[in-house]
Amino acid sequence: MSGVRLEKIVKAYGAVQVVHGIDLAVPEKEFVVLVEPSGCGKSTTLRMIAGLEDITDAQPIIDGRVLNCVAPKDRDVAIDFQNYAPYPHFDVAINIAFGLKIRKERKADIAASLAEIGGIPGLSEYPEGKPCDLSGGQR
User: Which of 53, 133, 33 has the alpha carbon at shortest distance from 86?
Assistant: First the structure.
């Protein structure tokens, strides 16, 4: 992942402003957690970065590229939603590989990713199991 920068990001629904000028800089390879009360705009902010919500004012920047006019599919951004819903009819391995296949990654790269993820304790036992076989945390 590349560095992410938000500069005074604002989101409003009509006259109601729900995100009030967020400034945030996340360097490349950093891991950031947003922890705030329910309804404060965390999900809305992430959805704006991903392109799933229009931005009312300002711009998100990833790797120096302004994203306002970049389609969501071209942003190379993913969100792991709190209520994650894997495809119940696919096994665990196919669910993990699905996004990589959609992006037309090479089979060898997909296999390497599956091998890496499969080494995570608690997941290696379930590559052919269904998501319902996993705990909420494993999903």
Answer: 133
